Amino acid sequence: MPEAIEMEIKDKILQAAFRLFMRNGIKSVSMDDIALHLGVSKKTLYKWFENKDQLVMAMLQDHLDKMVEDCGSFTIQAKNAIEELFQMMQMIRQQLAGMHPSVFYDLQKYHQPAWQVWITHKNKFILQQIARNLKDGIEQGLYRSDFDLDIIARLRLAQIEDVFNPEIFPPDKFDLQKVQLATLEHFMLGIASLKGYKLINTYKQVVEQD
Q1: φ, ψ for residue 58 (rounded to 5)?
Q2: d(CA 28, CA 82)
Q3: Which of 34, 59, 68, 161 sits at 20 to 30 Å (Cα–Cα) from 118?
């Protein structure tokens, strides 16, 4: 079988697994469920992934790679630091729409190697992205310059993870998408200069009209 076709099959498996995991939670989706969803035999599935742990790891890495690519595009396309955050808001809306609240819990409890990959990604790449955006915003006069950048960057990182903590935001009472967007907006308003505050309101009006 040509390599291009084989990679296409592998990508379809990863995409199907991602959709099922996000919709139903990781623990409740079996390899049988994924094979049935794709209309393929389990033999085909196990040709690519020896077990569910391996599939979860590959799915997560594929998702994180796409996130890195998207963030790179935001950095290039955005006119300023605040516009970049609004582009992030749109990505959050898409990613969390219909996401099962147990996904992060399942990852941490049942797939520790994959969870550690997420932790490393969060503590390195995401933290760097936050710090860079803060630096850009200060240089552009859109963020205040009277805060400790390292502290505020880590505070934002903690906010991102706290949203998924069921003890803080019980999933039967809070919508993950709304909470994540609310915390990001609160964060933006807290660091914005007067110039930045006015720009945030301008972007909000455009988003609300859409």
Answers
A1: -65, -40
A2: 38
A3: 34
Q: If you ran DSSP here, which 8-state letter would residue 140 be given?
A: T
Asked if residues 117 and 64 have their Cβ atoms less than 8 Å apart, the reply is yes
Helices of type H across the chain:
3-24, 31-38, 42-48, 52-77, 81-96, 103-110, 112-121, 127-139, 149-162, 176-191, 194-209
Maximum C-alpha span of the chain:
60
Residue 47 — φ and ψ, nearest 5°? -65, -35
Consecutive 10-residue averages of pLDDT for the chain (210 residues): 70 94 96 93 90 96 94 92 93 83 92 96 96 98 97 95 89 89 94 96 72
Q: Do the beta carbons of residue 117 and residue 57 sit within 8 Å?
A: yes
Return the DSSP state at 174. -
pLDDT at 4 (0 to 100): 62
pTM of the model: 0.89
* Structure-token pair, residue 106: 């399942």
CA dist 27 and 25 (Å) reads: 6
Number of Cα atoms under 13 Å in the Cβ half of residue 187: 23
